[in-house]
Write a structure and sequence with these properties.
Blueprint lengths: L3 H14 L3 H14 L6 E3 L4 E3 L5 H11 L2
Antiparallel strand pairs: 1-2
Length: 68
């Protein structure tokens, strides 16, 4: 589900400019996703999935942000 919402949002916006083009866009993204073997992993400390381990500095920044 990494980035999935962005793809659907872009496809819906494109539909208003070029009707029917969203299906081509989604098909292209589907083909690209099928070629990606790196699905990431769920980071329990952060509470969401990431593609790779984040540096400690970014993890700490996120934790500070979520505690505000």
């Amino acid at each position: 589900m990494l980035g999935r919402a962005n793809v659907y949002y872009l496809a819906q916006m494109l539909n208003s400019l070029i009707p029917g083009a969203e299906f081509d866009l989604l098909q292209g993204f589907k083909e690209l996703a099928s070629k990606n073997n790196d699905e990431g992993f769920f980071d329990e400390k952060l509470g969401f999935s990431v593609v790779q381990q984040l540096p400690l500095e970014l993890q700490n920044s996120w934790m500070m942000f979520t505690q505000m």
